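User: I'm writing a tutorial on reading structure tokens. Could you give me a worked example: one chain, its sequence, then its tokens, then a sentence or two explaining what the tokens reveal?
Assistant: Sure. Here is the example chain.
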Amino acid sequence: MKRLIGCMAVLCLLALTVGCGGTAKTSTLAYVSNSTGTGFTVFSVNNNGTLTTASISPQNTPVAPKLLQISANGKWAYFLDSSGVSIYGFTRSGNGQFQDPITGSPFPLTSAGSSLVIAPNNKFLYAALPASNEIAIFLIEQATGQITELGSNQPVGAAITQLAIAPDGLALYGLAPTQQEVVGFILDPTTGAATKSNSPGSIGPNAPDHGLILSVDGNFIYVPDKTQTDTFTTNGTVNGTGVSFTGQSPTIYGLSTKTNGVEGALQPIPGVVFHENADLSPLAQQPPSAAQYPTVPVAGATSNDSRWLFIANQSSHNISVFDIHTLGGSAPIEVQGAVTSVNGVPSSTASPFDCGAGCSTPTFIAVSKASNAVYVLDTNAAKIFQFALDQNTGRLRALSPASVGAGATPVWITLK
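And here are its predicted structure tokens:
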């Protein structure tokens, strides 16, 4: 009888962790903002990195969302509506469901917001207001999640389109494409005050509005430029033969988040600007055609162990991957490999990696908490293309299924 009870307990545990589909799930959920829908499509993140629709999906909201942030303690969820005029807040239950509106929600902004971040200590929320060159700072009431603005909007002298906050909560960064800079702020974790740094970081003339990529460890920032290119040579191997291809490659700016030990004071990393390799696969086709450099990089992310940097190239619909963990702050090195072909069909283990059949305009990248999977959101295709990440080499391989439907006009992924 004891053995029978023990077996039943094991089976129950398996049912809870694996489920009827036979795929073990993590405790992480992926929330997709549907900007022309009525809320969020929600996925469970499986142990192998694949996404499956969560039992709480969809999460319906009063208005269509733009982007979502969830407090570090998991208790509160805040999102900008699709027009950016208000912040909506919900309490979040243990299963990830948005349970009740937070008292006072929605919280109106004085002008359209473009971005939100929450301090890691759960005490403050920061919103960017690019039309008025301001940021708004809110105190989060710890018992209820209600937010109250601290004083008036703070002028910052820049139209910030995206915010990112350091993991220790001591610095805030704002992407200002019009001013061609990243603005740094030194934060007071007790009062929430944001003091603008005197050391901004210079970037290119056409940074994407949501192109600021803060490494998860908070040490580096990367910003691609959508149109700026330089002459660059890619060296690689095609069917066992070394090749070189020269063309116009996109530029990516790299910044260190510390100057003389001061967090929030930005300085260029050695090399300042680095470039993306060409896709050499066309050289292995029958008949061969010219290699192609990536075009229109618009977004990116780093792995959660800050080992790898991923760049979504919208017009060339591929993903460039860079080694950022062995360099001590030097310019990243793109993942190397080789191109081979069988019966005229090329296969490549080198970056950039094609984002898959049906992926036409990648717009956003997220990485699983375990850093074993990369998710590429394609707004036009209304899909997430999912890839296994080789954590030793940085190479990407399509998972099965290669993509999942992401609801109406998906624009943002939040993992929690």
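What the tokens reveal: The CA atoms of residues 382 and 406 lie 5 Å apart. Residues 1-21 have pLDDT under 50 and may be disordered.
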